[in-house]
Amino acid sequence: MKHVIIGNGPAGVVAAETLRKLDPDAAIDLVGDEPSPPYSRMAIPYLLAGGIDEAGTRLRKDPAHFDRLGIRLVHSRVEALDAAAKRLRFAGGTQGGYDRLLIATGSHPVRPPIPGIDAPGVHTCWTLDDARSIAARAVRGARVVQIGAGFIGCIVLEALAARGVDLTVVEMGDRMVPRMMTGKAGGMIRKWCESKGVKVHTGAAVESIASSGAALAVKLSTGATAPADLVILAAGVQPNIGFLAGSGIATARGVLVDERMRTDVAGVHAAGDVAEAADFATGERTLNAIQPNAVEQGRIAALNMAGREARSAGALAINVLDTLGLVSASFGQWQGAPGGESVELADEGAWHYLSLQFQDDVLIGATSIGHTEHIGVLHGLVRAHTRLGAWKERLLRNPALAMDAWLASSQPEALWRGARAR
What we know:
By secondary structure, the chain is of the alpha/beta class. Helices cover 26% and strands 29% of the residues. The chain has three domains: 2-108 and 238-305, FAD/NAD(P)-binding domain; 122-235, FAD/NAD(P)-binding domain (3-Layer(bba) Sandwich); 325-421, Enolase-like, domain 1, CATH 3.30.390. It has eleven helices and 26 strands. Strand 25 (352-359) and strand 26 form a beta hairpin. The protein is globular, with a radius of gyration of 23 Å.
């Protein structure tokens, strides 16, 4: 049996390791289109901040890890797939076959159609090559404009601030992290960033980027112009599915998969950012570019590729973010659902915020800022579909009782009362 995994990010690596445990004799190829060993893109901001070196970004620190497991690392780009013939065409024209295939090609940064976006000094922050280019320009005092203040953008923002740059952030949405935070919560994160010296423009689009020598000028839809020595694109990502054109694999925004991470072609699975899989809450197919989901999908895909029975419970939105020391989180249907109830509690002076979303007596989504003690509890309640009973009304009156609600719903009354007393 020959397993080929296209993509050597977290989903691909976990899938390869799972397959090796289940099938000691199979041939396993792990294909990546960069020359470096498998690494985490989410570690790149920590590399830029100086907390780790390039070796620290690697998903497995032991250089002999994959050799020891008999997993062959292939450094090449897959340009086309013929699913009927079970054949792959690689860059340079070489070809290879497979018995079982996992598509774990991840995503790529969006490059908005902005005049001047290809000018020198405009970079994405997605690869190690990007990190090297950014580090050369993002020196202390350099003027940096970052386009995008979503989840990834805020992680990059943290790294840039650590480098001591003069930072301006531009976000088209009406708040920071608009796909993760409610209006009030996103506004609080903006105020926090501004209090730390970051200039933030929300509700603003970049109309053009002009270059004059090494200097750049970023023109905004508000009429303002921001001078820059470096412009960073953090305007979102899209799945890497271009190579699947004509392959016979069904795609929409991503690769369409079922609860076993199977595509519509036998023997072909998909996992991670590229997979359009069922949502935990609604059951509808969605893209969920979050590393914990990618890892779990990779594991489930591998189990099924090896002939085992494994099903996903659905991708759950899980976002935990540290922005210049302010910790925020959102889970599940944080924006609420039709017919549901909600409560919002804010203490902006203390940088504390809670928003809870209910369907009947089940917590289906939550948003928090500053309440780090609630993060695990809120996640647990949402994932477990816990029926809260009378605690739902208590939480509507005071959402800060989330810990009590979790203890009461998961432990006998005598135990949770004792836990709170201690």
